[in-house]
Amino acid sequence: MERWADQMSENSTGATGPEVIKAIPLRRPGRWIAAAIIIVLAALFLYGAATNDAYRWGTYGKYLFDRRILEGIGVTLELTVLAMLLAVVLGTLLAVMRLSPNGVLRVTAWIYLWIFRGTPVFVQLVFWGLVPSLYKTIFLGVPFGPHLLELDVQSLQAAFAFAVLGLGLNEAAYMAEIVRAGINSVGEGQHEASVALGMSWSQTMRRTVLPQAMRVIIPPTGNELIGMLKTTSLVTAIPLSTDLYGRARDIYGVNFQPIPLLLVTATWYLAVTSVLMVGQYYLERHYSRGISRQLTGKQLQDLADANVEKAK
C-alpha cells in the first residue's frame, strides 16, 4: 500500500512517471470500402427517385403543408398524448395489481394483459368501432329496477373517444410490464426499510419504490410513445379519418395519386418522431446519471490524494 501510495504521489507531483506509449491505430480499409459502397448506393437511389416521374414531386410539394394535412398532424398528436396518458395511468395500476399480495388483483391484472397483449391492436380497434352495433343502448341503474340513465350509443359521434380508448387500453398492457420491471429493479432492502418505518404496502409502493423505479421506467416509455405515434395510423379501423394518415388517404382517394401523399405522410411522421427521439435522448441521459461506475479524472486524483494522506 505504501509503495503504491508513493507511486501515486510521485505521479501526481510530476516527479517521475511511466513513459508515454505511442499507440498507432490499425488501418482498417474495409471500413472505407463499406462506406464508399453505401454512399454510392444511396446516391444512386436518390438520383433515381429524383428523376422518376412516378413519385410526382410536384404533388408532394403541393400537399406537404396543406391545411388538411396540418390539421391531421394535430389530431394525431392529440391521439398520441391522450392515449399514452391513459396507458401510463392504467399500466401503473395494473403493474401494482400484479405485484399485490391480493390474489384476486393479481389474477385480474394477468387476464387483462393476456387479452390485450394476445390480440392485434387493429382487431381491437375494429371492435371499438363496432361498439354502437354491439351495444345500441346502455342502461345505468339498479338491476331489475328503474334506470337512472339511458344512453343511446348509436347516436354518439365518438370515433375519437373510441380511438383513444382502443389505443390506450392496448398500450396499458405493455406499460404494465415496463412499470413492473422498474419496480422489480428496486432492491428488497428498500421494501424492508419502508416496512421497518411502519409504512403499509401501498405507502411503500407510492413513496419509496415507484420514485426509484422511474430511472428504469422512463427510457422505454419514450420508445412506447414513439410507437404510439405511428400506431395512430390504424385508427382507420374505428373508422376515424381526421388523423394524419386519414387526411392523406382522403386526398389521394380524390386525386388518385397515393405515392406523393404517402410520402407526405411519411415525412411528417418522420419529422415528429425525430423530435421525440431527441427528447428521449436527453430524458434517458437525465435519468441515467449516477449509473456509470467509471471514475472521472478528478475523482481518480482525489482518490490518489486520499490514499497518500492515509499512507502518511
TrEMBL record:
Keyword Repeat belongs to the record: no
Family to which the UniProt record says this protein belongs: Belongs to the binding-protein-dependent transport system permease family.
Domain of life: Bacteria
Record-linked NCBIfam families: HEQRo_perm_3TM
Primary location class: membrane
Subcellular location per the Swiss-Prot or TrEMBL entry: Cell membrane
Full protein name: Amino acid ABC transporter permease
Residues that span the membrane, as ranges: 32-50, 70-97, 109-131, 259-283
Membrane-topology descriptor: Multi-pass membrane protein
Domain ABC transmembrane type-1: 73-280
CDD domains given in the database record: TM_PBP2 (cd06261)
Keywords: Amino-acid transport, Cell membrane, Membrane, Transmembrane, Transmembrane helix, Transport
Organism, as annotated: Nocardia callitridis
